[in-house]
Description:
With 286 residues, this protein is α+β, with helices and mostly antiparallel strands. Helix content is 16%, strand content 40%. It is globular, with a radius of gyration of 18 Å. The protein is built from 4 helices and 18 strands. It has an 18-stranded mixed beta sheet that branches.
Amino acid sequence: MTQTVCDGGSPVGETGPVNLLHCHGFGNQFLIAFTDEVPVDAPELARTLCDPVNGIGADGMVFGTPTSRVDSTRLTFTLFNSDGSRAEVSGNGLACFGHAILRTGPQQEDLDVVVDTAAGPRRIRVVGTPTDPVVSVTVEMGAAAGGPDLRGLSVDLGGPQAGRVASVDMGNPHLVVEVDDPAVIDLATVGPRLEAHFLPVGCNVHMVSVADRSTIRLRTWERGAGLTEACGSGACAAAATAHSWGAVDDLVRVRMPGGETTVVVGDPMVLSVTSTFVGDSEVADG
């Protein structure tokens, strides 16, 4: 499916129409554009185009740009959340980015590429062909490290009791809260309230329960996007946390509302994602 979107004369379309690829990883939606540079009004573009009513609808917008003029084949991944704020990295976003590279690049099958992000280089491996609507992707997400300061944080879940609490840095900040059942938490209320403790930087907020030594359940309030169907970096943060508690082994299935991913705990954390191509959209001057 291809549709045309008027961008109001933004830099993305100044030299002609630019193609946006729309992909999702377990329902976590991304719009991806390959451009010479990140446009100055990228936050506004993200807010407009990610809006499900007046735009296309997505959780974030990714710009793929050359890392340097010396090597135009090396790409930098720059992500803006649906509210226009910057995000350092995204596991599902990187998986969709790899899928988009495969669809638009010269390779005819599979992809193994290192891209640059604000959190450092990340390796993406895609199994499939440029015409496959669904591909399997693994992303090396780096090591899990200690996250934001939890001093003074009050974890009020509005009734349900919180268990263990941890913060994790996956190149972006995460708060992991152990609960009996993530589904019963009013995360639309609890998420922004907990995130407020970490302002102005903010934090991804995750409700996690351990089902067995190989399985956890996860629901996410995502910084800059709100409730999302899945969070790849959050799955890594949650798996690393549960592993540090001694609750799971090295291979962890993470069940989220949008689907089940697999995380291998280590350095780097390795995330497996099924990326689905939704369609193309043409951004044009107007």
